[in-house]
Amino acid sequence: MKPSLDTHSDMAGTVWAAWRDRLARLIRPLRRLGWLGFLLRRLAGALPSLCGVIVVTFILTRALPGDPAAYFAGPAASQSAVEEVRHALGLDRSLLVQFGLYLQDLAHWDLGRSVSSGQPVASDLLARLPASLELTVTALLLATLTALPLGVLAATRPGSLVDHLCRIVATAGVSLPTFFTGLLLSFIFYYLLGWAPAPTGRLDPTFEPPATLTGFYLIDSLLAGDGELFFACLGQLILPAVTLALFVIAPIARMTRASMLGVLSSDFVRTARASGLSRPRILYVYALRNALLPVLTTLGMVFSFLLGSSILVEKVFAWPGVGSYALEALIASDYAPVQGFVLALAVLYLLLNLLIDIAYGVVDPRVRLEA
Amino acid sequence: MTEHRVPLLKVDNLHVQFSTRRGIARVLDGVSFHLDRGETLGIVGESGSGKSVLFLALLGILEGNASITQGSAQFGGFELLRASQSELANLRGRELAMVFQNPRAALNPIRRVGQQIEDILLRHSAVTRSAVRARAIDALRQVQINDPEARYHAYPFELSGGQCQRVMIAMALACRPALLIADEPTTGLDVTTQAAIMALIRDLTKVRQMATILVTHDLGLAGESCDRIAVMHAGHLVEIAPTARLFSAPRHPYTAKLLACTAYGAESIEDLASVPGQLPNLTRADLPPCRFSERCNRQLAACALPLAYQEIGPAHWVACCNPERAEEAA
Q1: Last residue of a domain, one of A56, A77, A108
Q2: Which residue of chain A is at minimal alpha-carbon distance from B117?
């Protein structure tokens, strides 16, 4: 197919459409590969999003207020000194050239250097990412494990005590900002009750962190076979994870409830009941699996909430993750770390969506076989 | 001979009501009928006449806002309406099976059809896990699905509507139930498929000497396959008679009007009548004893008396105090 290039106005559109067609034709034969094809198709589908993310992060960071050259030259610097710094940072060149250089660096996994710390951003992020991931993933697991049963219970007993409890938790969780919940929890469980350790990061200074294998302290301490260390890490993790989880239990539980209610009144559940299948089989094998589909979509959305709100929670609990790192860089108008942070989060988010697509394929054969 | 005297299913004075936002709807009001072994009974009525609710009530799978307020239903001597949920669940799918309309929606969309049949087999019969697959494939073969070994792995969305209904029938018959309830089994299928599905149900139930209840709004369809037909209107069973008799000598004014609606014997489209008015609102407090009286042109003062059944001919019952005259010669 030859794209028509008659008018300038829709030229970009047709070129884009032609490329999309070409891509679609390229990945269509993958359908025959079954599962592998499904995975490759989803991966290919994530590529355009990745390109978009790279462009947007570049533009966003340039659009931030403040002049980094003036900031790093110091308040007493002369005009020429500022210009010198600007030239050294490459900020005096056109945006297009800057973008080209940025792409070139990205291709070498070079996210630039933090001007304030002097360290390469990539290694800074890599060192801090496990801390953030451990926190958000634990929070997501905690939230899912609480919200799913809560939603199912609320759906099977509408109007009951569990249903009302579900609604109260949902409303409270959404209406309290995370930094407030975090402070409140620290106040109660650390200051008043003394059950939780001081909110001072991933590990009490009296402990030596476990040898780095995965970067997840919980897993590393278990791999090292050190139970005491594991519980020390868990103790530190629990308050911030609960803080984050409380914020996202609401949307998951509500979606589970709504989705279960819909499925429970569907024709095929009536068929299952008319066939005399046992109640657990109807609830979990027939209803819940079908109800999970919209819940999975919600999980993806919720994870982006988590990534966003983890910035503040990391600050409150002095958690040495990428969020607090980016926050400090942002205050210092330090481009490279902010850019790297946004890019890393976007890639994480893309990966998670890929994971959710795969989960969709596992749960729903229509997605896997039709798409 | 005594077996013939004890009916397979005997429903007596069944009352079901729904509590709705607009008040209590008495959707079934004193429904009584019986069904012999091996017999095929048609239940005919407009949508909303309560014909589906009747069987959901018998199976114990009514929605939460529905309640059975009165009546009894003996199935092979077992009282269904006072049975516990677990006793009913043991019967459902094993002794009493149901086929629904709109088969594509009535099957679990994300489970292989073979597994859905296996779920029922494993629940109700003493079949080992290793043998169950062969039984499921056999069930598919009996409903004349091409290449049952391959179809076993199919998901409902990969099958046509007619094939889905065959799968539904295979599921219903998998445990060889004594009674099959087919609730509008051909609705949503195209005409040629409808005929094939009806023929399949007829053949399979005849071979196995199963009793069948065909629930439909299509009097013609019921006439083709049923031994007897019961007509329902607004939660009342208004007339029940052997098929030939019902068609040749309908006695309830509603049945007569329904027959006039069908194309049977009509010379041209002008001769086709329609039943005037619509089903009364069942939440009304001032519902007349005969719920058809407001649509009826044979009203008498006696219509305000409580509804009574009269046996007007052999096995022919009608709930009307001023039935149509019999024109039948024989």
Answers
A1: A108
A2: A275
CB-CB under 8 Å, B110 with A364: yes
Q: Which residue has the tokens 């027959």?
A: B259
- A153 and A250: one domain? yes
* A191 and A97 in a common domain: no
Q: Clarify whether residues A195 and A93 are in a common domain.
A: no
Min Cα–Cα distance to chain A from B115, Å: 11
Structure tokens that stand for A207 in this block: 């402990």
Contacts of A291 (CB under 8 A, 6+ apart): A155, A256, A259, A260, A262, A263
Q: Does A351 fall in a domain?
A: yes
Per-residue pLDDT of chain A (371 residues; tens, 9 = 90+): 444 444 455 566 677 777 767 766 666 655 556 677 777 877 888 888 888 888 888 888 777 777 777 777 777 778 888 888 888 777 788 888 888 888 888 888 888 788 777 888 888 888 888 889 999 999 999 999 999 998 999 888 878 888 888 888 778 877 888 888 888 888 888 888 878 787 778 887 778 888 777 888 888 888 888 888 888 888 888 899 998 998 888 889 989 999 999 999 999 999 999 999 999 999 999 999 999 989 998 888 888 888 888 888 888 888 888 888 888 888 877 778 888 888 888 888 888 888 888 888 888 888 777 65
- Quickly name the fold that domain B2-95+177-318 has: Rossmann fold (3.40.50)
Judgement on whether residues A286 and A148 belong to the same structural domain of the protein = yes
CATH of the domain at A331: 1.10.3720.10
Task: Write out chain B residues lying below 8 Å of A285, CB-based.
Answer: 111, 119
Burial of B8 (0-12, 13-18, 19+ CB in 10 A): buried
Separation in Å, CA of A359 to nearest CA in chain B: 13
For residue B181, give the 3-state DSSP assignment: strand
Out of A266, A274, A370, closest to residue B61 by CB? A274
Give Cα A338 to chain centroid, integer Å. Answer: 16
Residues A72 and A206 in one domain: no
| CA B237, B242, B245, B248 torsion-angle sign | positive
Q: With an 8 Å Cβ cutoff, are A274 and B102 in contact?
A: no
Structural domain for A338, as ranges: 121-369
How many other CB atoms are there within 10 angstroms of residue B117's CB atom? 27
**Distance of alpha carbon B60 from alpha carbon B54, whole angstroms:** 10
Residue type, B232: M
- Report ipTM (2 d.p.): 0.88
Verify whether the Cβ–Cβ distance B155 to A270 is below 8 Å. no
Question: Cβ contacts (< 8 Å) between A265 and chain B: which residues?
Answer: 63
- Residue-range domain boundaries for chain B: 2-95+177-318, 96-176
Residues A271 and A297 in one domain: yes
What are the chain B neighbours of A369 within 8 Å (beta carbons)? 155, 158
